[in-house]
Design goal:
Elements (H helix, E strand, L loop, with lengths): L3 H8 L3 H9 L6 H14 L5 H5 L7 E5 L8 H17 L3 E5 L4 H9 L6 E4 L9 H6 L4 E4 L10 E4 L1 H14 L4 E6 L2 H5 L3 H16 L3 E6 L4 H14 L5 E4 L5 H10 L9 E5 L2 H6 L5 E3 L3 H16 L7 E4 L3 E2 L9
Parallel strand pairs: 1-2, 1-3, 3-4, 4-5, 5-11, 6-7, 6-8, 8-9, 9-10
Antiparallel strand pairs: 10-12
Helix pairs in contact: 1-2, 1-3, 5-14, 8-10, 11-12
Length: 334
């Protein structure tokens, strides 16, 4: 590993002069600065993040707060994390990942140090207890998700209410009159997680608008729970011809369960889902779906944060419109 002393020796200066060139703490001649920069480039020296940021009093580190709570589908969450890290590197920033469920105390612990310049917060609840602290912090933040009252915060996400509505409108347009929503695990609704609540709101509003018979069923993320929900739906709604699935792990087990009960997809039952495209595409019956735009949302959150760090303004609300891709799992009502 190249050290600061190696750069100094190559440039013919003292290590302290290299340090001054990096930090800007003391003036040095332009010719000396150029010589040091050339040595850094030739030797491939990568200065420590702290030294690199002294001149701007920043750490060049963003905190990504992802509490790994019960009922959260980690693979999708990690898609958001990868997107944030990739976008942050384009701005020469690193990302500190915080996964513990520490609430306000965790945010305060990080914000009271010089560890990070700003925060991106995920798994936002409608009545999120972290809101007052986020509004009061002297560090900028962006939420991936929307609380009930987002005023004074900067939020970005897929428009999950519109996504729920779009799934129902697609099914209603195919003539389906009895539909069900197989939703997130029960604990996600108990916490009033924003995205799950908004899918239910959109689903219910569109079903009522189209005068459909509908019901909502939270579902644990296991094949056994999928079988139980399929049996319950057919017992309570024998005329069921379509379902919307907002629970990635049970998508294929649910299709298998319905087929085990005598309903073939799409001949007897149409299925739509809100899930990553790759999951919908590789299902045994490719599923009509609305994609989770993790890359767009993660990169957008970083862009918004950089605007705020640069002293600019950012819109309080950024909602991405849902896009539905029709595949083999939906067809007109039998």
């Amino acid at each position: 590993m190249v050290k600061i002393s190696d750069v100094a020796r190559h440039a013919g200066v003292s290590p302290s002069t290299v340090s001054y060139a990096l930090s800007g703490k003391r003036p040095i001649s332009e010719e000396t600065r150029r010589r040091i920069e050339a040595s850094i480039h030739q030797l491939g020296y990568s200065p420590h993040a702290g030294a690199r940021a002294l001149a701007s009093s920043r750490s060049n580190v963003l905190a990504l707060v992802i509490p790994l709570r019960a009922g959260i589908h980690v693979p999708v969450l990690m898609q958001f994390a990868v997107s944030v890290v990739t976008a942050a590197r384009q701005y020469d920033h690193d990302v500190l990942l915080l996964t513990q469920e520490e609430g306000e105390a965790g945010l305060r612990r990080v914000a009271d140090t010089a560890l990070v310049d700003a925060l991106i917060v995920m798994d936002v609840q409608l009545h999120d207890p972290r809101q007052p602290l986020l509004r009061a912090l002297d560090r900028p933040s962006v939420l991936i998700g929307f609380p009930q009252e987002p005023k004074g915060l900067t939020c970005i996400d897929l428009d999950f209410r519109a996504a729920g509505e779009l799934c129902v409108e697609h099914l209603a347009g195919l003539g389906h009159r009895v539909i069900g929503l197989v939703g997130s695990p029960p604990e996600v609704y108990v916490r009033e997680t924003g995205f799950a609540q908004r899918v239910v709101q959109g689903f219910t509003a569109a079903a009522d608008r189209n005068r459909l018979s509908s019901s909502v069923h939270p579902c644990e993320s296991t094949p056994a729970a999928a079988r139980q929900i399929a049996e319950q739906l057919l017992r309570e709604r024998p005329a069921l011809t379509a379902v919307v699935v907002h629970n990635e792990p049970v998508l294929e087990p649910l299709i298998d369960a319905f087929e085990g009960l005598g309903l073939r997809v799409p001949r007897d039952l149409s299925v739509t889902a809100i899930c990553p495209d790759e999951l919908a595409e590789r299902a045994r019956v490719p599923v009509t779906s609305i994609a989770i735009p993790a890359s767009e949302v993660g990169a957008g959150a970083v862009d918004l944060l950089m605007r705020k760090l640069g002293g600019g303004t950012a819109p309080e609300a950024t909602l991405l419109s849902p896009r539905l891709t029709v595949r083999a799992s939906t067809r007109p009502r039998p």
